[in-house]
Amino acid sequence: MEAVRAQRLQPGWAPGPAGPGPGLTGAPAGLAPAPGAALGPGLGLPPPPPPLGLQGPPAPPGSGAGAVPGPPAVLREAVEAVVRSFAKHTQGYGRVNVVEALQEFWQMKQSRGAELRNGALVLYEMVPAASPPYVCYVTLPGGSCFGSFQFCPTKAEARRSAAKIALMNSVFNEHPSRRITDDFIEKSVSEALASFNGNREEADNPNTGIGAFRFMLESNKGKSMLEFQELMTVFQLLHWNGSLKAMRERQCSRQEVLAHYSHRALDDDIRNQMALDWVNREQSVPGALSRELAATERELDEARLAGKELRFHKEKKDILLLAAGQLGSAHSS
């Protein structure tokens, strides 16, 4: 029975007579769901509040709705202010090495008992380029990802830029207001009820979308918004890939899916399965993979320049590149 249940909860989709798969229907290609909104179509959940209120400056022109009016300099000033404040309180006045400061911050968290599955190591990834601007991504120990948000003439500057925005988010994430508490849950559920014209009985029923939303929040009580966003990334990817719809068609309940994936880290097994799904889609609809990859790269750049958390966009790109590599290997053999 457990083996059958586990099989039903595997990510993936199966092409059917209606089309090539859930991932290619609905919203136009490239329009990724906002954080949390991914749960709506697949599980009937209302979107949770955004994880951080730090992403104020607009994305570059053409990035679409959701940008807040204001010059890009606002983000740079905010980041510099946080870095200076962090330096003053930890090392005294003077120039701070943000790369070292970010690493020390997470080592401090680990020494104080933070549960970091993969240790406190901060990982950097440079985008291959022969000339400026250079781009760097930084992945925090919990999985959150940020990128250089300025024009960077050198690789070292790109690394520092990524470290600055990651340090800013790491520091703000420690504020008590970023924790999921009973008061936060009640406020979020009340706002969801108002937005969806629901009633209080729905919030207490785990079989409704809002009830499942409450279940997710209560399961993560005490966690920070950044930690909650890391969990949401898994569900965003499952929705984007069509897996949530496929699970529903396999008669998986909301509670089963939430309980299973709330405690499962995003791993290579999930990535490989999703990449295989995109290989199958490309074989069903030639060109689907390249179109999705182009749209994903645009979204990633826009989010990076706006100083946003990038895990969802970055994972999408990596999965699509993995699928492209698998297709290339198949063709060469």
TrEMBL record:
SUPFAM superfamilies: dsRNA-binding domain-like. Residues 44-61 have a biased composition (Pro residues). One of its GO terms (cellular component) is cytoplasm. GO terms for biological process: autophagosome maturation. It comes from Hirundo rustica rustica. Residues 25-40 have a biased composition (Low complexity). InterPro entries: Autophagy-related_EPG5 (IPR051436), LIX1 (IPR029270). Belongs to the LIX1 family. Residues 1-71 are annotated as: Disordered. It comes from the Eukaryota. This is LIX1-like protein. It holds the Pfam family LIX1. Coiled coil: none annotated.
